[in-house]
Amino acid sequence: MAQEKKYKLGELEFETEQEYREAAMDLKRIKGLMDKYDVENPEQAKKILLSVKAHPETFRSPFGQKFVAKLEHTAGIASAPGSTATLQKEDTASIKQEKREKKQNERLAKRKEKKKDGTDKEKFQIFTPRNFAIGVVIVACVVVFSVFAPRLFSLNNSGDSNGDIRRNMVTAYANSQAELKMQLYTYYYNVVGQTEEEAQKDAEEGLSHYVMDLSDRTVSRMTDSEISDIYGRLVEGGDIQNNSFVEPSEITVLKDKLLAAGLSGNTGNGVEGETAVEAAINSMMDYQHRIYTSLCYQYSLLGNSKEDAEAYANEDMESMFGEVIYNYSMGIDDKQSYFDSFIKRGLIKDNQIVRFSADPTAYSLPELTPAIEITFSGEEAKAYQCSMISYAPAASVFYEIHAGKKTGYLWFRNNGGNTDYISLDDETSVTVQGDFLMVFGSETHSGEWFYNRQNIGIKINGDTSSVISYVHDLTY
């Protein structure tokens, strides 16, 4: 007999995923309150309790109830096991009871008044002209309501209602996650080379940065109550603000990796009717064109003319692919020939193209941290913020650098044909990796780059004293 799945969070165990998620959400709320308030301070504990009492649905799990009980203990408030929510229910019940007693006393007082006046002895007459007129009006109202009610309800239930807005937002949230999950799986499986199980696990882990993972759930079958609950949790967790999605920073980083690997908006599958060969070659042509376009743009950022940018890009493409086919018109026989060639080069595997890694170190190219220092011969070191802008850095890698409000660019090129050696000292020589260029405002430096132990050395006009140093910022 299959064992039922249990959900555990710390010392607590839950029967359903819903209970588990509610507990996780409560822990997130508790952490936020503890970051904002001193929960050991009785006055601040009372302040939190007042807010919780005003919003009894704040906590829904045993974790939340324990936290409320601790706050009550700190604030010196004695409470029954039902905690704040119970107190609120008791207060509400007491008020309702008082109102009922007041109304009952008023009715008794009126009856006594009638008995004294003798008015309660009058017989009630049903068939009177006044009652007949009232009946006619009621019938007319019923007829009018039956005619206009459907239109009224159809207007009230238009697509602009809050319920439809919530459902549309949750649906868009789920669809976006499903698409991202497929792209992540394709990235880990086809680009990184993981197994199916590893790729599936890492794709699911990527979605864990959202407040909720709805990628495998069918929103159309959810009730309005379920939609409202999910929408509320997304708002509380910060994924929806002012009816707009707020993307977690970790998801932004993942999408940048997908973009660099050429997978943004592309699941890697061919269109209906294509053979496996046609689908693979068409994908290869599209992938090559994207990389070529990106390289041309990045070379233009460095001040190159259109002709020079295209020449550099073509050299990079030859180095990366061997055969550049993005602008060819081919029949099925030609596509089969290139398909076989790319398989031999390892660029097509299992009828899928193998995309170049987004990690420049895989090609002996530098990967710079967000903070670097650059020292040119005879000058003081200058600090820059650095971010990679390469689409697929297999032959060249580009960085955008910032210092204050100024912006510039770095370019490291490894065209694979370097045989020049640089002597660092009497015992150490290194091979030049490729060409280097830096453009920052009116400042331009060009030369050759090489690895100098942990730093990047720059050779400019025979001088090897220029260095790019990594700055490791460990604060978080």
Give a topology summary.
Layout: E1 7-9, E2 12-14, H1 17-36, H2 42-54, H3 62-75, H4 83-117, H5 129-156, H6 162-191, H7 196-207, H8 224-237, E3 240-241, E4 244-245, H9 249-260, H10 276-301, H11 306-321, H12 332-344, E5 348-349, E6 352-353, E7 371-375, E8 382-388, E9 396-403, E10 406-413, E11 421-423, E12 429-431, E13 434-440, E14 443-452, E15 455-460, E16 463-471
Antiparallel strand pairs: 1-2, 3-4, 5-6, 7-8, 7-16, 8-9, 9-10, 10-13, 11-12, 13-14, 14-15, 15-16
Helix pairs in contact: 1-3, 2-3, 6-7, 6-8, 10-11, 10-12
Sum up the structure in keywords:
single chain; 476 residues; alpha+beta; 12 helices; elongated
Describe this structure in words.
The chain has 476 residues and is of the alpha+beta class. The protein has helices at 17-36, 42-54, 62-75, 83-117, 129-156, 162-191, 196-207, 224-237, 249-260, 276-301, 306-321, 332-344; strands at 7-9, 12-14, 240-241, 244-245, 348-349, 352-353, 371-375, 382-388, 396-403, 406-413, 421-423, 429-431, 434-440, 443-452, 455-460, 463-471. An eight-stranded antiparallel barrel has the order 7-8-9-10-13-14-15-16. A two-stranded antiparallel ribbon has the order 1-2. A hairpin with a 2-residue loop joins β15 and β16 (463-471). Residues 80-93, 119-124, 149-160 and 266-272 have low confidence and may be disordered.
Order of helices and strands: EEHHHHHHHHEEHHHHEEEEEEEEEEEE
N-to-C CA distance: 48 Å
Class derived from helix and strand content:
alpha+beta
Beta-strand content bin? 15-25%
Strand order of the largest sheet: 7-8-9-10-13-14-15-16
